[in-house]
Design brief:
Blueprint (H helix, E strand, L loop, with lengths): L1 E7 L20 H12 E2 L2 E2 L3 E7 L3 E6 L10 H13 L10 E4 L2 E4 L3 H7 L3 E11 L9 E6 L6 H10 L2 E4 L7 H13 L7
Parallel strand pairs: 1-4, 1-9, 8-9, 8-10
Antiparallel strand pairs: 2-3, 4-5, 5-7, 6-7
Length: 196
Amino acid sequence: MRQFIVIGHDAPTTPEFPLDDLAGASGRLDVLCRCVTSAFFLSHAIREDVRVHVVLSDEYTVRFEGSDLRRLNPDERSTAALVRAALEERAEAIGHIPVETSPGVSIVRMGFEATLDAVDGTVVQLHEDGDPVVDVDPPSDPVFVLSDHNDFTPDEADLLDDAATERVRLGPNALHADHAITVAHNYLDTDGFRSY
């Protein structure tokens, strides 16, 4: 299982956001939606062994489960509509019990710390100051943690310092979060860039 936790610092926590302005009036939800599609889509297929946790303003987490996922299309607007549908059911998310809002999509009342505590696997922080990924053996059951267009907050960085087994960078230049997910997949698909 490959997992990605993507933190949306300015993401909406109510469904009253415009699908026509995801980059502006929707707290850069466009970035988060691109991360979701990058995590799942192959050419004419979906990665079923992937789970994505999108943390919305440290209040809710929308989970996408590849093995059960339906109605996900490779565009930001339809992915944002799945997030909106999840937020419409947020009142049903009591405690840390998830509520499925669409096949393979659920919402849970958990912020970043609780989400990080709940995942099983090897936590890997993708960071431009990390070790070169080519020097790190691919972990089994990796959980990659990324931030949106903002840096990790000091509290998030402290949590990651405690939880992360590895802190890696994917190349010499900082990448957008959705591009980093694609490169991370390629790193795993090729056994650390050793097998094609």
